[in-house]
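Re: Re: token formats

Sure, here are both.
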Amino acid sequence: MNIHEYQAKELFTEFGIPVPAGKAVQNVEQFQAAVDSISGEKIVVKSQIHAGGRGKGTFTDGYKGGVKVVDSKEAALDAGKAMLGNTLVTHQTGPKGREVKTVYFTEASAIAKEYYLAILLDRENSQPVFIASTEGGMDIEKVAAETPEKIARIHVDPAGGLHPFHKRAVAFALGLTTKEQLKQMDKLLTGLYDLFWAKDCALVEINPLITTPEGDIVALDAKVNFDSNALYRHPEIVALRDLGEEDPKEIEASKSGLSYIALDGNIACLVNGAGLAMATMDIIKHFGGNPANFLDVGGGANEQQVTEAFRIILSDPNVEGILVNIFGGIMSCKTIALGIIGAAKNVELNVPLVVRLEGNEVKEGKKLLDESGLKLTSADSLADAAKKIVELIQK
């Protein structure tokens, strides 16, 4: 789960991480009070969407830049009005862009140097890892590709927790070595680590982290993602969820206990198990197709959930074919068959459908499908299924 920058900065403040003062607003009537709350004439105006590259983005009406640094309160009001309700397109939003429903006014900070700092889970080592780089303000992926030597990784054993030597290693990697800088970094890194653990974060990122000419260390930007599997422990984080930033199909899927992620292809996948779902998408690509989604119905889905999965799949206008790939361990192939039949009765199944069933109650499931009268194609293996669906949509 993602949240907006202004929400992330509120969490930063809660955990003692220094950020510029700011005010987020959702309507023009609030603009004046928000701008007046900012000290000084120089103000940063930021569009709030769940996507990176906002500063280099372009609005659909031609207005350029989803992040503006302006020299007066009047200019801040004008920039905010140009952004609010407008659609911002960045390299992460895709061509459709995202509508800006919140504008964030913040104090402008003088910058002496920019850095990159983040903490996330290293799945290879099963440990949190600090990622630090002197190349702040840039895409970390670009830094990793072009100058990997400028990225430092400091792992923290969760059994032992964060120690002073970890914090010194991060600070020294960034070249922040004076007594005052080490003191500030000690507090900042403690807050960052505590936030990461206390809120079950998947990522906490500051890009850029800056030093000011006066020597202060400030988080100029903030990005926080959460482990969705842990949200049941954090109703206060769930309350920050902005459904307007999420794909409606993904929202509907979550309500039914389904794991769904929309993709850009035209072959929908209905699979049980995340590993099998990823393998299914890979083999579709292998045979020249493009998956339209990741959809995992899980090991204990019922007929109603399978029917809902089909309804969500078919609500995507890009879907030209469906591949059902089920391995019945806990899941019964009979349940899947009943769900497919039920879906066909409730939604218009007007695209090619290939079904591959294997495992628990597979004979019963195949028999139900054979006797249903549905127009579908059976497959004996995953490769056979992927090859057939690709061929069918290319006819």
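Second one below.
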Amino acid sequence: MNSSVLRRAIAPAAGVTTGVGAAVGGGTLGVSSYFARQLVTPVVPVDDTPVLEVGAHHVALAVTEDSIAPGRYGMWQNDLETHARLGDVLDISEDRVTRRLDGIDFGALRPGKARFDGYYFCGPPATSLPVELDEVALETSLGPMPTWVDRVPGSDRWAVLVHGRGALRGETLRAVPVLHELGISSLVPSYRNDIGSPASSDHRYHLGLSEWADVEAAVLYAASAGAREVQLFGWSMGAAVVLQFLDRSWLAELVDRVVFDSPVVSWGPVLDFHAGEHRLPRLISRVGARLLRSRLHGQAAGLGEPIDIRLTDWVRRADELSRPMLLIHSAVDEFVPYAPTAALAAARPDLVQLETWDVARHCREWNVDPDRWERLVAEFCSARG
């Protein structure tokens, strides 16, 4: 999930009122409606990180929270025309940070604005991923969904990797080499309202409550290719999508185990968290959630059908879960609060293995400590049901 993009989208809601007192009362419905609409509306990312200098083996950037973060990252420029891979911080001053330039997958990185990302690996025609990806189209009720596939010859074990809200499929590619080494084939699907994919009739995210059907198409593809066992991965909102698939799909019985990174296991606390981040009263997020499921859903958020986020509360519904789960989450996640993940692990210690990071930003645990991330995933996924 692109947390910085969504924070910028929600931020204007904080400016609709001049203070908490003004928000409560006559302005509550309007602010709550705006708040809810931003959550479900796809946002087009923008290049917002200044690139100051590009050398053969380094790049200098303006200092931002992203650009000084420890670890390995990616960077887009000119929309999706250029992708570079950035390594460790080499030098930092008050307004300038220099990072190692590990390579440019395609395009030409130049001084100007760029967009920092947590992917490091990106999709074809990337040169950095040590496996070959093929492009296929999954048949869904909305039309063909672009999907990458890494086939391990003769394997009957498959994984489906589901990215987060506002992210690209490249977010999930860090898992593909690990799975390939285990003999597990990977599917990396897009889903409705992604860039380059069919849109829903209302052009809105449904927070997993409709997107799960696109994951079902991916699992069906794997089954038709001979999968006897499927593992599901979800990053951020991708976890919410996977949980709805497990609850609703006739193919859920194929799923052996689940891996979540920075997962949304309940949308209510996410809304509350962002209301607090913008100094809005919790009332705003609570009214926004009610608007999403009310008869005013179309007027409030532009939705074609209501969204009841109470159905996404898997802490409350923990006794309904039945698959082993590996949960990877940073305690300082700036977008999806850690507390619900910890609560889910505490509620189901028989099923859930929680692994906590202390430094990483949202969905960037691999970036900070790839060795640990890959070891945990390999150990968990190597087991058979």
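The longest strand covers residues 82-92. The chain has two domains: 49-117, 134-266+313-382.
- S.
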